[in-house]
Amino acid sequence: MQLVSLLEKMKMEHLGAQLDALCEQASKKDQGYREFLTDALAAEWRGRHLKGVEARLRQARFPWIKTLEQFDVSFQPSLDRKVLRELSGLAFVERAENVVLLGPPGVGKTHLAIALGVKAVEAGHRVLFLTLETLLGRLTRAAGENRLERTLRQLVYPKVLIIDEMGYLPMNRQEASFFFRLLTRRYERASLILTSNKSYGDWGEIFNDQVLASAILDRLLHHATTINIKGESYRLKEKRKAGLLGRSQPGKKEGGGQEELDKLLQAGLSETAEKGTS
């Protein structure tokens, strides 16, 4: 009873739950005191680590959980596997550097962004996932309620901030200003992972201001890795498998896939595309 009380006082709940099993295992293996203590403390650490990961995953607000192991690199041959391996080591997080994922809808940008975020969570970092629309909505409401500065400070706190779907909708001048202020606050202090369907040359259209777009890119790319994914949409791949899209005909010119994509968009099938991996 005294041991249970001590474990409770020391808040070693995970060890307490496994203590009987560990003692039985130690007896069977004829473990020494040091070896048993090592196993006992390891059991407590594993429990705490798992609990921490679960809590940080909830706080990250990922729309779903994806891992790098689940990403089909062979389907996107334009990706540099060496760069992905380097990013998975999270050195960019320790150096407060950014990652920008560019490419058309459906090529896996959001998947990779979330997967890197999950890696960061497992390593003990605080992560937050937001679509650009959600981010701008939060900042706009905060400004209207005279709490913009507090909200900006809160958004600087996560070690990794993921902003998804940059470029689908243009920003007004106020929203662009909010984004610039957030980027400036996080500059060289914490990492940003950003996904966009627009090339850098088109960012003036996103911010409706070429000068501001240049200032944003200057800070964003000063310490950053850019991954430009050029490939077919995973969702179109699955639809082809299901027979919803015709296969390319012999002698058909390059670009036929774009015609199929246009038909798909017109049919309204792409509504799910914006909600899935982009």
How is this structure best described in words?
- The chain has 278 residues and is of the alpha/beta class.
- The chain contains 13 helices and five strands.
- The chain has helices at residues 2-9, 13-29, 33-60, 81-88, 91-94, 109-122, 132-144, 148-156, 173-186, 203-207, 210-222, 234-241, 256-266; strands at 98-102, 127-131, 160-166, 191-196, 224-228.
- The protein has a five-stranded parallel β-sheet with strand order 2-3-4-1-5.
- Strand 3 (160-166), helix 9 (173-186) and strand 4 form a beta-alpha-beta unit.
- Helix 7 runs antiparallel to helix 8 (148-156) and helix 8 packs across helix 9 (173-186).
- It is globular and about 70 Å long.
